[in-house]
Design brief:
Number of strands: 0
Helix content: over 70%
Structural class: mainly alpha
Shape: globular
Order of helices and strands: HHHHHHH
Amino acid sequence: GKIVTGYITDVIGSRKCFMIGFIFMSLALFWLLLAREMWMLQLFAAVFGFAYAGCATPQSPLLAETFGLKSLGLLLGIVSFEFTIGGAIGPLVAGYIFDTSDGYQMAFLICGILTLVGFVLSMLLRPINEELGETT
């Protein structure tokens, strides 16, 4: 997935690839709410995995395009740290939801909604230089 989305990023741009990744992650998570058979879980895993790569691969170029190269290392470190925090807290929250509701449906729904929020926020990304009236 990362190799293919790396190529796609080069062709259509990192922001568009990021947005497509969020759309497909959302679709996969909402699909998971309906999954009742093994093939449905397998389809979820394939689509979600590919979509996740669609957000992971263009991450560094998107930061560079949006904020420039001066502090790219710092920004990439901050974003990576936030991903790690989410990766640590997410399973705890999902487990709590399972324990209190006897299922993962609400956790999947929340994740689907959060990926839609990510899509909307990625639509709003604009390079800093563009806001200043300069071309990049």
